[in-house]
C-alpha cells in the first residue's frame, strides 16, 4: 500500500547565516517508493507541487523526485505503467542536515545540480525540503 503523508508548513527564514532547519519548508508530501510513476504524477498534479519526498519501506528518505524527472522517465523506452519510484532511484540522496548552513546547502545544490534537497535527521527520516529562492 502506498501512503501519502502531509507535513505542517513552516515559515521560511531568509537571513544570511541561518541553518537549513530555520529556512526549510516542512510542508511537503512524503510517498513510499512502491508508488508507480503514474500515481506519483497524479499526486503531484493534485497537490500542485513539483516534487515529492520518497521513503523506503522502513520510512527512511531515499531522495526527492521531481515532476521533470518523472515526465522524462515516462517518455523513455524503460517506462511501463508498472514502474515504481524505487525503480528509478540509482543512489540515495543528495541530502542535507538541518544543522547545515544555508550557504553549505546551496553549495551542495549547485554542485549536485538540483533545485531542492531533502532535509533528513540523523536517522534518515525526512524533516522537510530546502530550496534556494529564485
From TrEMBL:
It comes from the Bacteria. CDD domains: CBS_pair_SF. Transmembrane segments: none annotated. InterPro entries: CBS_dom, CBS_dom_sf, Diverse_CBS-Domain. Residues 22-70 form the CBS domain. Pfam families: CBS (PF00571). Keywords: CBS domain. PANTHER family: CBS DOMAIN-CONTAINING PROTEIN CBSX3, MITOCHONDRIAL (PTHR43080), REGULATORY PROTEIN (PTHR43080:SF26). This is CBS domain-containing protein.
